[in-house]
Amino acid sequence: MLLQEMNKEHRPDPPSPSGKESEDGAFYIGWMPKAPKSFAKRIKRVLLILFPVALIIAYLLSTSQKKFSTANFEYGKLTEVKGIYYDNPVPLLKVFDKNNLSMTILLVGYGKHGAETAIMELEKEKGVSLNGKEVTMKGTLIYGDRKTLLQVDKNDNPIVNIGDESTIQLQQKDLGIQTIRGEIVDPKCYFGVMKPGEGKVHRDCAIRCILGGIPPVLHVQNEKGESNYYLIVGPTGEKINDTVQDIVAEPVSIEARVVQQDDWIILYTGKENIKRISYAQLKDPNAKVIACASVMKY
User: Fold this and answer.
1) In the structure, what pLDDT confidence band is assigned to residue 52 with cuts at 50, 70 and 90?
2) Between 226 and 13, where is the model more confident?
3) What Cα–Cα distance (Å) separates residue 28 from each residue in 17, 21, 42, 115, 146?
4) Are the folds of 72-165 and 172-282 the same?
């Protein structure tokens, strides 16, 4: 008796009068030539929902990605640049255009080296100090985001001409003691030689460049994504490269005496005034950002 009741419970429903399974109970098997209508309708409804969702996700992902760097390195091309050379606090060349607008070009050496050694050897070779003189140099231009650098290689005989002492001085303005947050980068790679030239992926290369004498730069970005750059030197303008090597490519807070020198801002600071911070602190909308850039385009 019990067995009969169990068999009755498991007995399949009788076929519909038409001899076909009802659409509500349709079941699609992959080898069937055509899916049941109800199954196909359900899939279409799902696809109509998923397609615009996929488009929205794709758009959000693409717009949230960091933009590719537009920095440039004119590898293999030498350009002559005429300006006034200054060695304090780092090697710089102040150049003017036909409208008498100026920009300050940061000088770097070949490879992972600063320009000081090459300039000192050239001064010794020619028996003259270049500081404060009108000089025509040739080198490889590096430029991006309103900043320009010139790679000077002693093997390229970079000194084309040495003129007279200039009466034009670097324009300086003391902006007082301030605390600024950002990431320390090496400017040679950041402004064109490497892409990317910042962050953890570039950390080892940046450390070697900075230890080789390339001046460290603090990259600061505001909440709108606009960037500004600050040269970092010691309290009296001496090199601070060894001091910052352990915190390159990390978020830091720097308390410094801030000086605007033409179109660069210089941070005069010491080891005790540079501190690691979190990425959350780095994105603080109240963090200071001081803008300074040349209006001249080289």
Assistant:
1) confident
2) 226
3) 21, 12, 12, 74, 63
4) yes
**Cα 216 to Cα 89: distance, rounded to the nearest angstrom:** 12
Q: Where do we find the tokens 């909308």?
A: 285
Domain 172-282 has CATH 2.40.50: yes
The residues, ordered by sequence, that sit 6+ positions from 114 with a Cβ below 8 Å of its Cβ are 90, 91, 108, 212, 213, 214, 215
Domain range annotation of the chain: 72-165, 172-282
What type of residue is 158?
P
Q: Contact at 8 Å (CB) between 109 and 118?
A: yes
How far, in Å, CA of 81 to CA of 265, rounded? 22
C-alpha 245: how far from chain center:
18
Look at the block and give the residue holding tokens 């994105």. 283
With respect to CATH, is domain 72-165 assigned 2.60.40?
no
Beta bridge pairs of residue 143: 72, 148
Give the burial class of 126: count Cβ atoms within 10 A of its Cβ; 0-12 exposed, 13-18 middle, 19 or more buried.
Answer: exposed
Q: Classify 246 in phi/psi space as left (phi over 0), alpha (psi -120 to 50) or beta.
A: alpha
Q: Give CA–CA dist 258/247, Å, rounded.
A: 20
Mean pLDDT of the chain: 84
Note the pLDDT tens digit of each residue in 224-249: 778 899 999 999 999 999 999 999 99
